[in-house]
Structures are given as structure tokens and as C-alpha cells.
Amino acid sequence: MSWLDRQSFLGPDSDQVLQDLTVGLVGLGGGNSHVVQQLAHLGVGGFVLVDDDVISETNLNRLVGGTLEDVLEARPKTEIAKRVVLSVNPEARIACHQAKWQEVAEHLRACDIIIGGVDRIIAKSELEAFCRRFLTPYIDMGMDVHRLGDADEFLVAGQVVLSSPSTPCLRCLGVVTDSALTEEAGQYGDAGGKPQVVWPNGILASTAVGLLVQLFTPWHGRPVRSAYYAYDANQGTMTVSERLGRRASKDCPHFPPDEVGDPRFDIREVVTRAETPIERGTIDTVPLAEPKHRLTALLAMVLDLLPFKVRR
């Protein structure tokens, strides 16, 4: 009997696949606090947790696992996320980095997938570009609150996007635009500074986790490689965005296949550290999947980028 028995429909080797995974989570104040909790319950084995901030009182309305004591202690959000994971799976491999992700990018390179919980459009764009460089699937989450006309009513909306090499990127799908980047320094939403609430974050996070599961241990059809879900909290709907349908058959002009990847990056230099025993629950090690698992995933991604005739 295993604590994961009730998710055996994910496949006979799903427990091992999830255990071998290393997931990078950038930004832990809202949606990703939900994601990290769900990944722990799924049995994901490796986490690279990145956030330069500490919890504040205004985070308590949405940060899963955060407490008033954490606020009084000015506890780093990475430490709170680590505590959430270890409370479910004491054997998890965890690396905490209280820093901006650009400062610890080397620790994200060997992740099997990266999930962004960042607010700023420029941060989404830069994080996706990093993932494309290292052929890493990227899931982006975002929500905002907009005033409806002159009435004292608001629209709560958001999106979840899976961006993989050779698929439509955030620019293709209109999540990142030049106008949005230009206007970003202005007001964020209409309900106050960076409006965030817990229930939309939970819905967006669950959708992101579902995409991760369908990518690595699919329970129906083929593994998903590209997705764009639009959330409307006012209507209570999560729908496939029409933007993806319009772009799905077109090449991404922003990250052409011959311009992704980094010729200087040698995955062997990173994964060899996985051969050294990792102390469970520490913050000074970089948790990695087994080298064979990571190399196989990268090889499959590269082959998928090649023309069909070459792959055959």
C-alpha cells in the first residue's frame, strides 16, 4: 500500500516519474503557493524554490501555508513553501533560493519544467526566454482585477499558458505585448496595488498542475505541449482561449527552431551532481532528477524540433 495508490491511473510507473521530476517554481507569494502544495501531494520529488521576498501581512489573504507567526518572524516565502512540502513528503529534495531568479538561474537549468508565479509582464517574458534557451517547458500563470465601467463592480480574470519549444510563445498568444510592457509601470489593475485573492489563484494553480501531470504522466490522449486557458471568475468558467487555435498551426517567429537552445550548455555537467547523495530537505543542494531521466527528456524535446523526415 502506497500513499499514492489512488492516483495509479496515471500509469504503472507514474510514482517513479513524479519522484524523479524536478520542478522549478519562481515566485511563491500567490498561485505558486497552491502549486507547491499540490505537487507535494502528487509525490513530485524535486523542487527548486525561488523568491527573494519574505512574507508580509498582506500576503495572508492568499499565501497557502503562511501564518501570522511567519509574518512576525519575517520568514522567507521559500522557507514557508519548503515547510509545506516537507509536511507532506519528508523525503522531497528541496533547494531554496531567497534571491531574484536571474541571480540563481544556474540552479533552474536542470529543472524538468518551470512554473512562473510572477506578476510583471517583463518578468514573464524574460523567464520564458530563459526556458526556451534551455529547451524547458514553461507554465505561466497570471490574474488581474479590472473595473467594469463606472459601476462599483469588477472583473476577476486570469490565464494559464503552457509554453514549450516550437509551440506558440507568450508573445504569439498576446500575453506579452509591446504595449503591455510600455504601460506596465502604470497602475496594476483597478482595485488597488497588485490586487490578488485566494480563490482565483487556487483555480489557476490547479489548472497549471493538471497541465504538468498531462505532460509527464498523461491520463488521457497524448502529452500536452501547448495550452492556453482563460479564466473568468465572474462567469465561473475556464475555457480554451481562441488565441491558441489561431496560432497552433503557425511557427513561432519570436523563438525560431534554429535559434533556441544554448550550444554552450552541457546537461552532463549539471546532472552529474545528481549522482552525489542529496540530503533530504536541505536548502544547500540542487535537487535533480536521475541523469538518464533528464537526458531522455531533453533528447525527446530535441528530436521533436527536427523535421519529420529527419526524425524518421
Could you explain the architecture of this structure?
The protein has 312 residues and is α/β, with parallel strands linked by helices. The protein has one domain: Rossmann fold (3-Layer(aba) Sandwich). It is 34% helix and 16% strand. It has an eight-stranded mixed β-sheet, sandwiched between helices. The protein is globular, with a radius of gyration of 19 Å. The termini are far apart. The relative contact order is 0.15.
Give a summary of the structure in a few sentences:
This protein is of the alpha/beta class and 312 residues long.
The CATH level-2 architecture is identified as 3-Layer(aba) Sandwich
SS field, number of helical segments: 11
Using the coordinates shown, work out and report the CATH topology: Rossmann fold
Mean pLDDT: 85
- In angstroms, what is the radius of gyration? 19 Å
CATH superfamily: NAD(P)-binding Rossmann-like Domain
Main pleated-sheet profile: 8 strands, mixed
